[in-house]
């Protein structure tokens, strides 16, 4: 009877110990969540279409544990990617329209001057147990595709982004958060970096600068046509 | 253990605390004689290093220290500044020299925002608090924790002051603090914490206060 009572008292401790053991070696899942600010920059006065492919919208990586002491990592960034890029594109263009399908000759995009299609080519992460450095890191490589309203390519360019969370930032006295929180924070820093990289460089990339040049020459052509209108009127009379 | 014995023991441990050694170096010029007045200042952390980043809580601690000692000074919170001026002060884009601020002249909306903040000084804090090593052993079981552990912490921070209107560096304040935390344990751990980061925050905050305030 006494033994049974001791066993009953031990049950809560055993549950805690078992869950601690499982949480240290089991699978870790992170659905990246965070808020992103609107970029403070001069807007390009154009309506631009944005098309997110299904793979982009539900982007995730799964990394299986290499040894018994490690955990599987499942990092889902899709939702946060959409949140960030919606904010960035609406901050740099006067109007953006999210397209439900990729533009083509059969179904061209309407009322937009071009369409931008972001892709995540690669995502890598590093945690202290991999690197022996007390830093959680996320590195991403993007590719941006620029197409016209018929879906014909105008060009593309690649861009990298990086974010890190030093362990003392999240494991400090006031922190006490988990490894998942640290990865989430590193991902948010990487996404912020991606936005910063895009806003400060995209005008200088070849496809965008050519597109902007095209817009400028179109504007000057239309101005010339406006001035020449009275002349043509005279001719027609 | 009797609570009448345990409570005074815990209180005395808290009062004693761990020992901290702190050193502050200062080099400033063009100090405002009557303080910054109605203008504002912002304190930002440097985060472009590969293996460390200035902790946001340290930056916040320095700002709070200054505003607590002189409530007339307005320090713009770091997170507010970074979000409202995104993406111009991110680790990738933040200017490393005051002359680099000139490139912002091309960004009209950014200039307007900066003007609306009445910013007089931009203070960059670079550094971190690191664990310098640990010793001892502590073992815990269902009956409690027993043993003795100790670890050292070292804080090293440098604040660089930029005059935002003159686009020039006007001073540097450096602080170094170190201390040893002890944790004896008889049934429960009794940490004797060395507030290394707090000492560094107070040290750098006091020096910045002398620069920014007309009262000190």
Largest interface: A-B, 23 and 27 residues
Query: How many beta-strand segments of chain B?
Result: 6
Strand order of the largest sheet of chain A: 5-2-6-7-8
Structural class of chain A: alpha/beta
Can you give the helix content of chain A as a percent range? 40-55%
Model regions low in confidence, pLDDT < 50 over at least 5 residues of chain A: 14-23, 169-175, 228-237
Task: Please describe what this structure looks like.
The complex is a heterodimer of chains A (about 240) and B (about 220). Chain A has helices spanning about 1-25, 55, 80-90, 130, 165-170, 180-200, 205-235; strands at about 30, 45-50, 60-65, 75, 95-100, 115-125, 135-145, 155-165. By secondary structure, chain A is of the alpha/beta class. In chain A, a hairpin with a 5-residue loop joins strand 7 (about 135-145) and strand 8 (about 155-165). Chain A is elongated. Residues about 15-25, about 170-175 and about 230-235 of chain A have low confidence and may be disordered. Chain B has about 220 residues and is an alpha/beta fold. In chain B, helix 2 (about 55-70) packs across helix 5 (about 195-210). The N and C termini of chain B lie far apart (about 50 Å). The interface between A and B is medium-sized, with 23 and 27 residues.
Keywords:
heterodimer, A: 237 residues, alpha/beta, Double Stranded RNA Binding Domain, 5-stranded mixed β-sheet, 3-stranded mixed β-sheet, 7 helices, B: 216 residues, 6-stranded mixed β-sheet, 5 helices
Strand-helix topology:
The complex is a heterodimer of chains A (237) and B (216).
Chain A: H1 2-25, E1 28-31, E2 44-51, H2 54-57, E3 60-63, E4 73-76, H3 78-92, E5 93-99, E6 114-126, H4 128-131, E7 135-147, E8 153-166, H5 167-170, H6 179-201, H7 206-236
Helix pairs in contact in A: 3-6
Chain B: H1 3-16, E1 20-28, E2 40-45, H2 56-69, E3 74-76, H3 78-84, H4 108-116, E4 119-141, E5 144-163, E6 168-189, H5 196-212
Parallel strand pairs in B: 2-3, 2-4
Antiparallel strand pairs in B: 1-6, 4-5, 5-6
